[in-house]
């Protein structure tokens, strides 16, 4: 399935790419960067490792695409991102081999399901049950914590990124798709008033999320998932059945390593600004002879020649208009940060100084103005949102 890019001025759910794509030159900034990497006696100095500081993103302000990332949402995603950086976990999806899927020929172990199988699916827009052919079978290695969901109606273990179909109790209509991690952390709005549907999504009571217990269990091994046009399939584990949402896996399960330019090694907040460090992927050919044979070499070469370049985020989520401004929704999931010629986040530039001293001008002060009442603070925040 094609994941639509949500461009400037558009609303909806899809891929959020924050990149304007043009180069901005600043002579003073160029001079600072060049001087930090140039030795009058020995010429250019190529650090080993080549670690640079950067402003990555900001919350609560409009970027060049007119979008605002709320503080709680961006901080939540950065925290998850840093967990992956620290633990270096494999990113798998969905179920272990214990799960089964209902096909036209009956229940079949998820590990044995193929793209030739027709499986029972649910159209969450019409609530109609349909048999559809599997469009993709996913099998990945996973090393990390599974989330165990257990009640009288459910008893299964899934990866944190696995998504569940969520319905509202009062309206008995589809509400959203929510990951096991968010359910574990109680991050779903009105979670106690929601349920995971069973065979009849509207008329059955479903699996009451208020009664489900969650725990994390270490696991290393294979995980499996399937994709269908309706994105929803009927699953069973320990003889307990319900509808489950597939994970919209990318067309390739690996990153093209030829496109890797950097590795983010540290992130922290300075007020509302996210700053940190990244190590550039520098080859020995570039260090010795100045030959650019990787994207990391290219980034380093641009920095050493005084170009001011930046970073911008890539993520998936919804965008909607609230109070006259474009807001990123609670379902936003951060994918990565790319090196770009001009960042959409104002002032999100890379610095070759490890102490990031020349990035201070782009970072909001953490000190609050004196003699400022709580009422005035709220008024100013409201003005910032409405402007």
Helix content: 10-25%
Distance between the termini: 37 Å
Low-pLDDT residue spans = 20-30, 88-92, 249-257, 365-373
Q: Taking Cα atoms only, what radius of gyration do you get, to the nearest Å?
A: 24 Å
- What series of H and E elements makes up the topology? EHEEEEHEEEEEEEEHEEEEEEEHHEEEEH
Shape: elongated
Q: What does the largest sheet look like?
A: 5 strands, mixed
The average pLDDT is 77
How much of the residues is beta strand, in percent? 35-45%
- The number of helical runs is 6
Assign the structural class, choosing from mainly alpha, mainly beta, alpha/beta, alpha+beta, or little secondary structure: alpha+beta
Give me the secondary-structure topology.
Elements: E1 12-17, H1 27-36, E2 38-39, E3 43-44, E4 51-58, E5 67-68, H2 71-87, E6 100-103, E7 106-109, E8 118-123, E9 128-133, E10 136-150, E11 155-158, E12 163-168, E13 174-179, H3 180-184, E14 194-196, E15 207-208, E16 213-227, E17 232-237, E18 240-245, E19 262-270, E20 273-280, H4 284-289, H5 295-304, E21 310-322, E22 325-328, E23 333-340, E24 350-351, H6 374-386
